[in-house]
Design brief:
Blueprint (H helix, E strand, L loop, with lengths): L3 E9 L11 H10 L4 E4 L6 H9 L10 E5 L4 E5 L11 H10 L3 E4 L12 H10 L7 E6 L6 H13 L3 E4 L12 E6 L9 H10 L2 E4 L5 H67 L5
Parallel strand pairs: 1-2, 5-6, 6-7
Antiparallel strand pairs: 1-8, 3-4, 4-5, 8-9
Length: 289
């Protein structure tokens, strides 16, 4: 059996992140539409939406892989394949070890970009040396959220010199940017129908990766973003319609409730008024003397 080429975007943010707004359903739909095999939702220090995305992924023809972008004491770390949130604000090596002990893959995202909580070169080098060259599983050597390619080139050189696998991620915070950068992985002895998250994670560990993130031609970009915008509009229109129907149903229920309540109160007041009138007539009549 020939090797299967799998395309994955391992670094995407959903509305679970404080700085992103799109639901995982929209992200999964976009990933499937542009030909990815998997997309990992890696929200900042929260994992709930990623777990939900991993569960929903097969409905979109994708492999479900949960993950998170956790804040360590040294900077950000991608934890792929974990189902609980790693401890926050702990040293990088301790967090990476925690991830790996639970079967996950620890990837250093956007290294050297200190303005985005990337880990500095010297500190990353110290962790590498202290671990005997095995501090983490891979390095994000292409992050599409950049003004220039300088830091990506530095990351690529660092990874190559120390023999770490390189991966590419879009770091998308809007659905239109999903897949702007992605990682190609060659996996032997597996079919697309039998492909699992463990197959993908093992292939990343082994270094069977190729970075894809070159500048997209303008016509392709236009189609890419226009399609995303159309799907986004359709999604929110559907959600708005469902919300309106729910509100209308709720409003009708409340109107009926208050109408019934009003009728009951009116009946009660009328009954009280009749009783009061009867008592008054009795007091005025000769029978009361």
């Amino acid at each position: 059996m020939s090797a299967l080429t799998v395309r994955i975007d391992p670094h995407v943010h959903s509305e679970g992140s404080y700085d992103a707004h799109d639901p995982v359903e929209l992200i999964l739909e976009q990933a499937a539409e542009i030909g990815l095999d998997a997309v990992v939702v890696t929200d900042h220090d929260v994992i709930d939406e990623s777990l939900r995305a991993a569960q929903l992924a097969p409905m979109y023809g994708l492999v479900g892989i949960p993950g998170v972008e956790v804040s360590t004491a040294d900077g950000h770390l991608l934890a792929l394949g974990v189902e609980e949130l790693p401890p926050r604000r702990r040293p990088l090596d301790e967090t990476a070890r925690w991830v790996r002990e639970r079967g996950g893959v620890a990837i250093v995202p956007h290294p050297f970009q200190r303005s985005r909580h990337g880990i500095g070169r010297r500190r990353l080098g110290r962790y590498h040396d202290a671990a005997g060259g095995d501090a983490f599983d891979a390095i994000e050597t292409y992050n599409s959220w950049l003004f220039t390619g300088y830091k990506n080139r530095r990351a690529r050189r660092f990874a190559a010199k120390r023999q770490y696998p390189g991966v590419a991620g879009s770091d998308a915070h809007k659905v239109g940017y999903v897949g702007r950068a992605y990682t190609e992985i060659d996996i032997s002895d597996v079919s697309r129908a039998s492909l699992t998250a463990d197959d993908i994670l093992d292939a990343i560990r082994s270094g069977s990766t190729e970075v894809q993130g070159r500048r997209t031609p303008i016509p392709t970009s236009t189609k890419h973003y226009a399609g995303a915008a159309g799907r986004k509009s359709a999604y929110y229109a559907k959600r708005g319609a469902l919300g309106s129907a729910l509100l209308a149903k709720k409003g009708a229920f409340r109107s009926g409730y208050y109408a019934k309540l009003g009728a009951l109160k009116s009946g009660s007041l009328a009954k009280t008024g009749v009783a009061q009138a009867a008592r008054m007539l009795y007091r005025l009549s000769p029978l009361s003397r």
